[in-house]
Amino acid sequence: MSAAIAFEKAQVGQPAPDFEMASTRNLEKLNEPVKLSDYRGRWLVVMFYPLDFTFVCPTELTAFSDHYEDFQAIGVDVLGVSVDSVYSHRAWLQTPRDKNGIEGLLYPLGSDVTKQVARDYGVLIENRGIALRGLFVIDPEGILRYKVVHDLNIGRSVEETLRVIQALQTGGLCQAEWRPGQETLKP
Fold it and tell me: Which residue out of 10, 21, 44, 57 is catalytically annotated?
């Protein structure tokens, strides 16, 4: 019996894996899919999370939503993705934050029910059927520029995500702890 070998399509510096999936773009009808090509010409943060109605996930999704204007100000869109259905997403989006919901979220959630997108991005936990916390930054030309994957119990940092994107947008060499407004390194 041969061992199965996973091939991760999501490689930094290469075109991001294409996708199309159901989404919450039209929360009432749930009939508007989301595709990678929709974001051509803009930066995109794709954030995989394990499941709706869990504990760490709403803290992350709402933190990114609370800073959505900061992302928009630098030309960045955000997309959350899990293996849940759009119906589960809608129910969660209609649940108040004080009841562990994400009501008022300012960006759409993609529904990766086939698990193919999580698989293509290398974050699917096959034996559990859920995604690790993967964050991917895709540039306006569709090239993957940054990725970080966390274990299930650790939330991601909005501040670090913004800092990394702003560093990438300089096109220069940015030292450790670089902050917007600082000079880039001169070779």
Answer: 57
Could you state, in order of their start, the residue ranges of all structural domains in the chain?
20-28+36-156
Q: Which of 45, 37, 71 is nearest to 142 (CA)?
A: 37
Q: Are 82 and 131 in contact (CB under 8 A)?
A: yes
Cα(9)–Cα(36) distance, rounded to whole angstroms?
Answer: 14
Our CA angle for 180, 15, 22, nearest 5°, is 95
Does the pTM surpass 0.85? The reply is yes
Contact predicate 42/76, CB 8 Å: yes
pLDDT of 1 above 50: no
Judge whether 174 counts as a catalytic residue. no
Place domain 20-28+36-156 in its CATH homologous superfamily: Glutaredoxin (3.40.30.10)
